[in-house]
TrEMBL record:
Record-annotated TfoX C-terminal domain positions: 5-77
Name under which the protein is recorded: TfoX/Sxy family protein
Superkingdom to which the source organism belongs: Bacteria
Length: 119
């Protein structure tokens, strides 16, 4: 069975899973729900908790909304703990506006203060 045919897994999620090397129910079951979710996240995609629940439902062959609240909390806690271990993002926010300062001879003289070299 391919990831595309797993219950709860839509085309976009199936593509993400395939791109991280998870092509079958057995592939996902071998690493578990949270690790499958984390592989997608570490690959640079932006999965939501819906993917976490969808994977769990796919492995349990149930609709993701049927996952008990206690299990959902366990999954979220485990995912949050794994996310906290990720290195910080490498990008930096864009810099502020660039300003150009032009110094004229008068401005330089004013900043230098009185000339103390004569005495």
């Amino acid at each position: 069975m391919t990831a595309e045919k797993l219950r709860n897994i839509g085309p976009k999620s199936a593509a993400w899973l395939r791109q991280v090397g998870l092509r079958s129910h057995d592939d996902i079951a071998a690493i578990g729900t949270v690790e499958a979710f984390m592989r997608v996240k570490r690959a640079g995609f932006k999965p939501t908790l819906n993917l976490l629940y969808a994977i769990e439902g796919a492995l349990g062959d149930c609709h993701w909304q049927e996952i008990p609240d206690q299990r959902r909390h366990e999954l979220v806690s485990a995912a949050e703990a794994a996310i906290a271990l990720l290195p910080p993002p490498r990008y930096r926010p864009p810099a502020g506006p660039v300003t150009t300062t032009v110094l004229t001879a008068d401005t330089v003289a004013m900043r230098a203060g009185p000339d103390d070299s004569d005495g």
